[in-house]
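Case study.
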Amino acid sequence: MRAVTFQAPRELRLQERPSPQLESRADAIVRIDASGICGSDLHIYHGRVKIEAGFTIGHEFVGTVTAAGDDVTRVAVGDRVLGCYHSACGTCFFCLRGAYHKCDRMRVFGHGQLLGGLPGTQAEEALVPMANMTLRRVPAGVSDDVALFAGDVMGTGYHAVAEGGVRPGDSVAVLGLGPVGLCAAQIAVAAGASPVVAIDSVADRLEVARSFGAVPVHLTEDSPRELIRAATGGRGVDTAIDAVGHPEALDLAIRLARKAGTVVAIGVYAEPCQVHMGLVWIKALTIKSGHANVIGHVDRVLSMLEAGALDPTPLVTHHMPLEDAPEAYAVYDRREALKIVLRP
Amino acid sequence: MRAVTFQAPRELRLQERPSPQLESRADAIVRIDASGICGSDLHIYHGRVKIEAGFTIGHEFVGTVTAAGDDVTRVAVGDRVLGCYHSACGTCFFCLRGAYHKCDRMRVFGHGQLLGGLPGTQAEEALVPMANMTLRRVPAGVSDDVALFAGDVMGTGYHAVAEGGVRPGDSVAVLGLGPVGLCAAQIAVAAGASPVVAIDSVADRLEVARSFGAVPVHLTEDSPRELIRAATGGRGVDTAIDAVGHPEALDLAIRLARKAGTVVAIGVYAEPCQVHMGLVWIKALTIKSGHANVIGHVDRVLSMLEAGALDPTPLVTHHMPLEDAPEAYAVYDRREALKIVLRP
Amino acid sequence: MRAVTFQAPRELRLQERPSPQLESRADAIVRIDASGICGSDLHIYHGRVKIEAGFTIGHEFVGTVTAAGDDVTRVAVGDRVLGCYHSACGTCFFCLRGAYHKCDRMRVFGHGQLLGGLPGTQAEEALVPMANMTLRRVPAGVSDDVALFAGDVMGTGYHAVAEGGVRPGDSVAVLGLGPVGLCAAQIAVAAGASPVVAIDSVADRLEVARSFGAVPVHLTEDSPRELIRAATGGRGVDTAIDAVGHPEALDLAIRLARKAGTVVAIGVYAEPCQVHMGLVWIKALTIKSGHANVIGHVDRVLSMLEAGALDPTPLVTHHMPLEDAPEAYAVYDRREALKIVLRP
Amino acid sequence: MRAVTFQAPRELRLQERPSPQLESRADAIVRIDASGICGSDLHIYHGRVKIEAGFTIGHEFVGTVTAAGDDVTRVAVGDRVLGCYHSACGTCFFCLRGAYHKCDRMRVFGHGQLLGGLPGTQAEEALVPMANMTLRRVPAGVSDDVALFAGDVMGTGYHAVAEGGVRPGDSVAVLGLGPVGLCAAQIAVAAGASPVVAIDSVADRLEVARSFGAVPVHLTEDSPRELIRAATGGRGVDTAIDAVGHPEALDLAIRLARKAGTVVAIGVYAEPCQVHMGLVWIKALTIKSGHANVIGHVDRVLSMLEAGALDPTPLVTHHMPLEDAPEAYAVYDRREALKIVLRP
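After joint prediction, the assembly is written out as follows.
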């Protein structure tokens, strides 16, 4: 089968790879119908996240089950399915506490040996371990484009809102309107939050946020702090979501949150940085961080996608054939796309 | 001023009463613009809830603050406000745990000496104790009809959904589509629940539920249990809300809930009754009951009303002048109305 | 190997059975060192819970791992282990929400085909499915007698306290001082609850409760309602635990709980019964029911047993050899024992 | 009456002040029997927290009610009471969400005009606003020394454990064994946590921690990270409490916490500082900060003190008469005392 492999920073190749085989009774094989390119794929593309040369990349996918081990009960051969971006063992200390994203034996698709040696899904076929965890049937009426958000980007948006403790009627600010931020804004609106203030400096993204029911605020042309103060009786928002992963975004989130509020730092942090702990302390904030527990959220996300309460369609800006993956990554790297869907 | 007073079962009168005066620094006086008739007013009307002859009734209201004590900080003279149906002290054991609806010194409008001796709001003016607790400004753009739901019926719907632990994407069944059930259904939808199955045997009410985004199911002509099983992978709903207050409704709610699910019995119970504890035990259910903690929810409810995420307008079927209150109660008693708004 | 088998109500037999073999990579085989007799075994003994003639019974156990499949990572051959009373799949809808006790594929040791066809542990050896879920290493210094409580009775006590939402300093009443009630009382004390009022009519059990730090109250010779009122400023307890499973116990628990409090009905219910929903409603109570989620609690219970914060030793009244199982059940049935430990 | 007043950094004076008078129906007057010196008093003493010259200081107190306004219901004239370190209004946005420590109208005893202009309690008498919030009866059998911890230091320890989401059987590390850290360690043990690892570099404090049931670990002579790894199966603790308020303590707390664990930064932060957000992100931590919500916890803390589950007596190292306050602060400043109790 054909697969998109990492060769070196900014160098990908479409290569022939052996078709995957079931290795355990918990595995399934999925014939890929669509696979998305995600912001975290760019970390590999740039070489910041290091993986082996020749490793197949990609972790967002929709496809059809072609084989399944005896222990696979939640999907069956022939089912149209979507995948979560990683598998989890279901029995370790962390899985037993529902922290599937911190599973001691988690394996992430397309992230090399360090994260479990699980070949990626930008390929014609994929081996899916712990299929009961990792796969879900695509509800009738949900398109490939929509479904592949459930196991990664929309799950991440859901995670941000859930970790933020957002209740219907609460106020929310989302900082950074990439795909994750836009999904977080859409979910916050769909969860009854109000107002949901969406902050960025790119006009198109602000426009998408507006179409999702959020209040768009330009980071520099508007005054986010004053607008939020005015919209919340001077208090600040109940929950501020940093979907950027930059100390300035975190700092702004800390300033936008009300006393005893919550800041969710869902954007990626890799280094130490300056945090205004004096503000965090005097405001008695809660800060929650980390990537998303999509396995913990996927059923609920699918339910909302099926109902149309969520619809990430506007985020899909490009469809390209699998063989154009190298070009697709270059387009994505130039920030010309929000979500590119590759089709084998 | 004129006030609607209880005289005897099914006998009300419009009487002249002295205008209320501030009694404490925490009090406000409100000139009533609109007051609703509520299901619990019927209990008084029928004589099931006993109050003194001559006592002013009514507990849903919107109006304008005409006087306020020195400790009143959340509203001011001239503000257009809505009221919660009861006041709370803010400092007792229960208030300190956020259970304002179980305040040791709560006073309910229009419910006689037993519940605090606080004259009702179906009058031209009302004394409002603990105004910081009881009153909120009506957001701009929110009509009287909409606002007066915030402090009672919509707050009760919110309570049912909140107590039910409903999370975005969860499945919900609402049994009984009176005003409270319809509000609960609307809030469940607005909170991202899906599906929200609304069950009743009155076609008009089912139609309102459908317009709110719920899935209408006829109690007897459809098969609620089978439909819910089909809609939830055979499991039952995450949360079942009994908005009726009858053992049969509770029993159905228990049967509709999934294993480890939640049943919220928001309908009024006054007596012992048969409950299938065997089912409750084997399904490991949580049952939550009691009237609503509207003071705990009112800010969030108002935020959703202001955003248009909630809109109870379709529930207001009648507007009548205050002097027609006796006729209005008769109409309501004949179940010809969902919500009647009285205007002085 | 030898095993205790059910033949007919009140008729058990020690029979020869084939030694169990690994059936899956997730299985382990345990050589049993000790197995307890539990109240739920009596339901089988009496024929109320129906199982096949010849089926091996028992579900509380401590032993040594003699074989383990490739997927077993949390224990290893040679480990001294204790078992939970059931296994769980780790991947179904309910396991993914942490409700392991409601797993769609749960198998209960020694409860016949209906509950998974898993032979019991009152035997010389046992097959343990999903060993990562079901087994834990016994911490050094923890005796067999203590350890075998972790996977059933003490886990049930923990469940009652956890479901009750008990926080340090909260007041708790425990109704019924069988092994589960006594464990619940001990855990409530160890969790910082105060006062913990323990109610029964058997002097010896009250004495054990007193030794656990609880306040013993005789059901009929004392006045539980008055004593609890006096101890809680007239309010009632924050959490009332019904460890009996009888409508009168549930009714008393409802009366002992404070407004907005919690009742945990951990005792077994099988039938519909009278519940004073009027009281439940007016007090705005939460009722939680069902058997215990021991897999969800076992790590924490073990940690407390290891620290000596919990010590169920006083509950072990009898040690008997496996071959005396028929006599042991007769003793237990005559209520002459709190916990009997069988040793092969 | 006599009162201890701030004059300038490191300069206090015992001055004559007019006796306080009731100003509102919610006020009480307390004749002070004992008042503690607290770490936050030192911030004033050092001039880091600026207050007016001549302002009376102190905020921990036990005494007797000598006058009470008409709205005061939870205590009465003649009652022996303890006080919380601040009052709260009970009706603002934050109080209604239970965040009494972030009350919009909170007043802190002895902290100058900026924090409400409320004279301190290191005096012979004190005006206590919102007495229903601020005062509680001292349970029979609880000494002054013990009781005055309830409204500040022990309440802060309780807050740390509660915010940390500590459940019975969870592992906890406490960094910094000043009075707050020692109280946090004692509460964690009393709440059933195990192990509770207490880290400091002062032998005496480690010894007190050991007497409280914690595992003492020397910050530099032992290896906290290795010891905790060994004690938690290599994972790290469920909850790490930074009771120091220094970036190095916070950094260590972040390293000691397990994946998906919680860090509570209860120590005081006033400035921005370096935080390893990369670690926070990859471990998916929750960080909670801020001073304590003692009004939210005081009933439960008192219940535990009354039961003897908590006993801070070993922390009281000095008793001194009020007139020796200047000397007492000098002793405290030289770190020769854990808790000094002043008596008028």
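Observations recorded in class. Chain B touches chain A at residues 158, 161-162, 167-171, 187, 190-192, 194-195, 297, 299-304, 306-307, 309 (CB under 8 Å). The longest strand of chain B covers residues 28-37. We will return to this complex in the next lecture.
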